[in-house]
Structures are given as structure tokens and as C-alpha cells.
Amino acid sequence: MDENHRKFLERLLETPSPSGFETAVQRCWVEYVSEFADEVRTDEYGNAVARIDGGDDAPAIAFTGHADEIGLMVSSVDDDGFVHPSRVGGSDRTVTKGQHVEIHTDDGVVPGVVGQTAIHLRDTEEDEIEDVTEQHVDVGAESEAEARELVDVGDPITVETSIRELAGSRMAARGMDNRVGIWVAAEAARRAAERDTAATVYAVSTVQEELGKQGAKMVGFDLSVDAALAVDVTHAVDSPDLSDQEDEHGEVELGGGPVVARGSSNHPKVVRVAREAADAAGLPVQLQASGRATGTDADAFYTSQGGIPSLNVGLPNRYMHTPVEVIDTEDLDAAADLLAEFAVQSEERESYAVDI
In terms of CB atoms within 10 Å, which end of the chain has fewer, N or C? Predict the structure, then answer.
């Protein structure tokens, strides 16, 4: 990954965007794709779509990711000035306590910490982790009135972390799910444009995936494409905590390349073209069985407009929905190249309809 593209990824990762509050990261994404797209548009909820025009009567392909991340939200303030949070998306109660957090208000960021009782004062034999709604954020206020001067109910909260460079090409950060997906969608479209593909290519960054794929439902309503490839993280099972669960979770490894899912919303012809594109470009891919819903935007796109042939392309990710998600940047580069080659392979294809 070259320096400019890495800086773009870092800007995405450094920009907080809990579900429903994606504006800042969408601005960053739109700024990047505007450098090469023929048109960029956004809708009322902040979904962003960039179009690169292909030839006349050429197929149209969408590369999509979701911009939002999980987080917390101010739910109430008690008499002593402690802030009580609720979840935004699938936040994990086991990793929130004892963390630095940022509360994003209309007037700027308010720092805080999620309280954790000192080990000296707990009966560790009976330790239980409270639900998120039973935890509290300490912003330093001494009263309810003082706290309410700082925050409002409904302000989003994110855990404060930084990007960490790990060994080799691996990185750790909060919000890899799914900044890496919108990075790949943008980069794949740029690389397809560089190859002067005849296909019309859309790069899409959706909102509110973590709340039920809501943004993809909005975009899918009127995005007229022949195929949609939804890029999202998927579980890498090569860490010690999952080493004995391959039978349940598959065989995905960090650094093994992007993951092509098969089954459920993953259209068989789109799967085949993706695998052919990987072979043509000499790119590594991993396969993943998907006998149920993928849990990604692909599930929304494939039921839109009477059915858009869709595919979930996975990016291996360790420790999903924690502040220390780990990815391999080589997987991201390979995914962007795979999607760009998919556009090239689609140039002469008339239809993805299954043969009955």
C-alpha cells in the first residue's frame, strides 16, 4: 500500500462515525473519490455514491462498504453527574469498562472514562461484567447540572484509541469494521478507472449498516446496477481464542487474501466471475460458506429492485467489535485489485441471470 493510499485509510480510521453520525467520515470519503469520479452524490441520510462512466451500453457494477461503526450514546445523566450510556449497534460490554472515551457534542469533544471498580474493592471470584446500560462514564463533573452543561442526551460516544502499526503489514485500530470496506470500495473504483474499463463503476459508502443495513436499503432502492459487491470485514479464525472453531466459523486467515462468500445472498454467477477475476490477476482469495444471511449490506442489495446479483467480499479481521481490531493491509490491496479486475471481466457480460 503506497503512502497516499495509506494516509487515506488512516484518515478514515481516525474519524469517529457511530451509526447515525457518519457525516465527518463521509466528507473524508467524498473528498477522496471526487478526485477521480465523474459524479459524486449524497442523499438525505448521508449515503455517498461516486460514479465512473463506462462505455455505451456497458454493464454497471457497484463496489460498496459501510461507513458507520459501533459505539455508545448518552442515555441519561444522574444526580452526581455521571453519564449513563446505551449501545449504538453491537457494542461489546466486555471491552468498554476502563476505557478512555470521547463524547461528541455539538460544541466539540468531551473526554471521559468508563468507570471500573478497582480490583482491590471487588470480589474477583464473583466478577460479573455489567451490561453497557449499567456502566457509567465519568466526565469529571461534580453534579448533574455541571454534566448537562457538557453533554446532551443522544450525544454519540466512541472509545478513544489510536492506530497501531504491528509487525509486517498488519494494523490495529478501532473501527476497521468497516472503514476498510469503504477504503476498498473507493480504491477499487479508482483502480478500475486507471485500467480504463468499459464498465460503469459505482463506489458506494453507506450509513447505518450496524443498525440493520439501513443505508444499503436506501441506496439499493434506486441504484441501477448489474451487480453489487459489498465489502465488509469477516472473522479471521487464526488467533488462539478461535483456533479450535474452524468447523463453526470456517478457515479464514489474516493475510490470506480477500474472502469470497458462497451461498445465501451471494449470487452464483457473481461468485464465479469474482473467482475468475482472481485467477486472471493472480490474486489470492479465500472461500467462505454462507448458508444463512451474511449480516452485511449484500443482504440488502440482493433483495432490492426485484433482485440485484450481489456478493459479499470479506476482509479478514481479528477481534471484531473491539477497540483493537486487527487487519492485514495486503488483504485490502488484494481486495481492491480483485474488484477492479472484476469490472474488467464484466465488460462483455450481458447478464448475471441464472440459467433455468
Answer: C
288: closest CA among 242, 245, 342, 250? 250
User: Bridge-partner residues for 86, per DSSP?
Assistant: 73
- What does the buried/exposed string (b/e) look like for 272-310 if buried means 16 or more CB atoms within 10 Å of the residue's CB? ebbbebbeeeebebbebebeeebbbbbbbbbebeeebbb
Identify the three-state secondary structure at position 214: helix
Contact 314, 288 (CB under 8 A): yes
Residue 16: Cβ within 10 Å count = 21
Per residue in 171-215, pLDDT (tens digit) is 999 999 999 999 999 999 999 999 989 999 999 999 999 999 999
pLDDT over threshold 90, residue 57: no
Q: In 3D, which of 47, 70, 53 has the Cα closest to residue 210?
A: 70
pTM, entire model: 0.95
Q: What are phi and psi of 177, to 5 degrees?
A: -85, 95
Q: 328 — alpha (psi -120 to 50), left (phi > 0) or beta? A: beta
For the chain, domain boundaries: 3-69+174-345, 72-159
CATH number of the 72-159 domain: 2.40.30.40
The three cell numbers locating residue 152: 446532551
Which residues make beta-bridge pairs with 73?
Answer: 86, 156
Looking at the chain, list the stretches that DSSP marks H as alpha helix, in order from N- to C-terminal side: 3-14, 23-33, 144-150, 176-194, 214-222, 246-249, 268-281, 298-301, 329-345
- The upper half-sphere exposure of residue 70, i.e. CA atoms within 13 Å in the direction of its Cβ, equals 19
- How far is 335 from 16, CA to CA, in rounded Å? 24
What average pLDDT does the segment 143-170 reach?
97
Asked: is 3-69+174-345 a CATH 3.40.630.10 domain? The reply is yes
